């Protein structure tokens, strides 16, 4: 519901200022944002591989570090965490580029809606990263990795996939919808 309200705000402001949207969206670096989007979408793939390992009750790798086929949930979730952290870092870098183009939270309706929608998404991604740290830590602390730990990993993956789907919608609306 929260993101639905953000989408409603975005479309309402956009409909009242179409000329502003036309000029401001030209400042967006679409290839840069697309590459960042690909990183986030691929992090959903690595997250799901971690879930598969958790469902096998395999918390950690059973082979060498480079033997990806033998990775456990922890290794897949660490890779997912790294990819999510890269996404947030690149998004922060994109913010600095836009601020240098005079697009800020307080510059106009476009800046406000852009930073509110993408910023709240970034906060949700950061929350997911914290959840991954808890799940990874729990896998190391647990004396026996069982169904309770596996279920926790699955629940975090649902959240992560949801955050990815929301970003795909945001990305399409902000960067491509004319």
UniProtKB/TrEMBL annotation:
InterPro entries: Cyt_c/ubiquinol_Oxase_su3, Cyt_c_oxidase-like_su3, Cyt_c_oxidase_su3-like_sf, Cyt_c_oxidase_su3_a-hlx. Its EC number is 7.1.1.9. It is an enzyme of class 7 (translocase). Residues 1-178 form the Heme-copper oxidase subunit III family profile domain. It is found in: Cell membrane. The chain crosses the membrane at residues 32-54, 74-93, 113-137, 158-177. It is a multi-pass membrane protein. This is cytochrome-c oxidase. It comes from Tersicoccus solisilvae. The gene is ctaE.
